[in-house]
Design brief:
Helix content: under 10%
Order of helices and strands: EEEEEEEEEEEEEEEEEEEEEEEEEEEE
Largest sheet: 28 strands, antiparallel
Radius of gyration: 25 Å
Strand content: over 45%
Shape: globular
Number of strands: 28
Distance between the termini: 39 Å
Length: 313
């Protein structure tokens, strides 16, 4: 098997080999010891999900598709309580999600398997239209209070970039043109008044500079893990940031030179926040990393109690 770790969130995904061509997700955990485990059969079909928060979900699977989700032992008689049911078309498209009261969320599709609408349990619908290249060209609600149209233009002769135009209606019409480079990155956007904001980006898509319609440029720098460490305005004044373990923000210095500081425990949970004036707010957490108290600079304490699932009680 193998693991995938996210240095920003502290989460780790654990996969187990089932066949030379199949690895299934077995567990997700975080730096506070919270975990979710997944049970699968020999073919990798999911059967159950169990959380360190104390709940267990069981899955009903038919024809390799999940058709029901239940909370184990939650019914008054001790049996599993049905939470969701799922229905599919003959081609495998999800057509309905029904809650425990059988209220449906319904989806429709065209002959190419593209979602053309969804209708919620209040019978309110939202629709989609596509062109012959499978690009969405329109979407909106049935009452017209929310609507979006998209047009995809040929390459702009002046810049060599592709152009996508969006027009929203409902509560006023707004049109924006987006200029997209060969890497699929937005490098400029123009509003309906002709005002243009321009961007430069690195190979990861991160913004390096942003130039407003007046020509003022703000530049950004990043550390090796992608955290923003500085934002410098056109006048040369900068906001800078520093990070500690788990990519947690430890210090931010404003353009006026004032600094805010944060400290954390060994698992990345915030312990203190100190303002530029020296006022400190303190935080405590339980063994699972859940917030248990906040003490303001005057010593006033707010206590937070949570259940095993992490929900405030």
């Amino acid at each position: 098997g193998y693991t995938v770790a996210d240095p920003h969130t502290g989460r780790t995904w654990h996969f187990a080999d089932r066949t030379p061509d199949l690895a299934v997700l077995e567990q997700i955990d975080d730096r506070n010891g919270n975990w979710i485990t997944f049970e699968n059969d020999a073919e990798g079909t999911p059967l159950a999900v169990t959380s360190s928060g104390g709940y267990r979900l069981t899955l009903t699977v038919e024809d390799e598709r999940v058709t029901a989700l239940s909370l184990a032992g939650a019914d008054p008689d001790g049996t599993d309580q049905l939470i969701k049911r799922y229905a599919y078309s003959e081609t495998g498209d999800l057509t309905q999600v029904l809650d425990s009261a059988d209220r449906p969320l319904t989806f429709t599709y065209d002959e190419r398997g593209r979602v053309t609408s969804w209708t919620d349990s209040n019978d309110r619908s939202y629709t989609y239209e596509y062109d012959d290249q499978d690009r969405c060209i329109a979407e909106g609600g049935e009452a017209g209070h929310m609507a979006l149209r998209l047009t995809y233009e040929d390459t702009d002769p002046a810049t060599g970039h592709r152009v996508t135009t969006t027009t929203t209606t409902g509560g006023g019409s707004h049109t924006y043109r987006y200029f997209i480079d060969a890497l699929g990155q937005v490098v400029a956007e123009t509003d309906q008044l002709g005002h243009t904001v321009r961007f430069t980006r690195d190979r990861f898509g991160r913004v390096l500079t942003r130039t407003d319609p007046l020509g003022h440029t703000t530049s950004y720098t990043y550390d090796d893990t992608g955290n923003v460490i500085s934002a410098t305005r056109a006048d040369g004044r900068a906001v800078t940031a520093e990070y500690g373990d788990f990519n947690r923000l430890t210090r931010i210095r404003g353009t006026d030179g004032n600094t805010t500081r944060h400290t954390y425990d060994a698992r990345g949970n915030r312990l203190t926040s100190t303002t530029p004036s020296g006022h400190t707010t303190r935080f405590t957490h339980d063994e699972a990393g859940r917030l248990t108290s906040v003490t303001d600079p005057l010593g006033h304490v707010t206590t937070v109690r949570c259940d095993r699932a992490g929900l405030p009680v």
